[in-house]
From TrEMBL:
Residues 113-207 bind DNA. The modification 4-aspartylphosphate is found at D41. It holds the Pfam family Trans_reg_C. Gene3D superfamilies: 3.40.50.2300, Winged helix-like DNA-binding domain superfamily/Winged helix DNA-binding domain. Signal peptide: none annotated. GO terms for cellular component: cytosol; protein-DNA complex. This is Putative two-component response regulator. GO terms for molecular function: phosphorelay response regulator activity; transcription cis-regulatory region binding. Residues 1-106 form the Response regulatory domain. InterPro entries: CheY-like_superfamily, OmpR/PhoB-type_DNA-bd, Sig_transdc_resp-reg_C-effctor, Sig_transdc_resp-reg_receiver, WalR-like, WH-like_DNA-bd_sf. It comes from Helicobacter fennelliae MRY12-0050.
Length: 219
């Protein structure tokens, strides 16, 4: 009920607003598209809010979210803070208070441009998860695409081999599988420098060229 009220109140102010009926549904929705901000109750059917967010943060450590709960305990508050929640709401929620928080979020967290421009004529569409080389779209296989965007979600950070094997290949791959995948990605992008192997640790995708944008999506 709370989710329906929030959606009815705020969807007209958002470029995109999706509502998930439970934690599993929310996680599946997140895998289909990315959101600027997630508003999440702790107590959810099938998969609780904390577990859902932990999986999302594993994939994208920079995901912003707001926690909502009627179980006002120090444990919930401390866990929310450790997970770096943008805000922690106790039920019942005053929609005017939530509106103030969302406006502040929009003003202070303008997202980067829809596009990231890398070296060698590579352009990344961050919203639609599309890759362009010299303005021509590059099509990767589902696994290679998942691999590339996992690295992109953790750009400028070393992503451990184990994390890649777990997230991209469901724990059914070897280091040689990763090496061959990187070779194919570099071949498709015609760039040897875009992804670096940090020996004994993992892979690193570096980005540094962006342009400003004000595109916000809400879940």
């Amino acid at each position: 009920m709370c989710g329906e009220i929030i959606k009815k109140t705020f969807m007209k102010y958002c470029l995109s607003f999706e509502w998930a009926k439970d934690g599993k549904d929310g996680l599946e929705m997140y895998h289909q598209q990315k959101f600027d901000l997630i508003i999440c109750d702790i107590i959810l059917p099938r998969l609780n809010g904390f577990d859902m967010l932990e999986e999302i943060l594993y994939e994208n450590p920079n995901q912003d979210f707001i926690i909502i709960t009627s179980y006002d305990t120090d444990i919930n508050l401390i866990k929310s803070l450790k997970m770096k929640a943008f805000f922690y709401f106790r039920k019942p929620i005053d929609m005017r208070d939530l509106q103030i928080i969302l406006v502040n979020y929009a003003l202070n967290n303008q997202k980067p441009t829809q596009f990231h421009y890398l070296e060698n004529g590579i352009k990344l569409d961050m919203i639609n998860e599309q890759i362009y080389k010299n303005d021509q779209e590059v099509f990767l296989s589902p696994k290679l695409k998942k691999f590339f965007w996992f690295l992109m979600s953790n750009a400028n950070q070393v992503v451990a081999y184990e994390s890649i094997i777990s997230y991209v290949y469901d724990n059914e791959a070897s280091l040689n599988t990763l090496r061959m995948a990187i070779v194919r990605i570099k071949k498709f992008l015609e760039s040897e420098d875009i992804i670096t192997n940090v020996s004994g640790a993992g892979y690193l995708l570096k980005i540094n060229k962006t342009e400003p944008n004000t595109h916000n999506k809400l879940a």
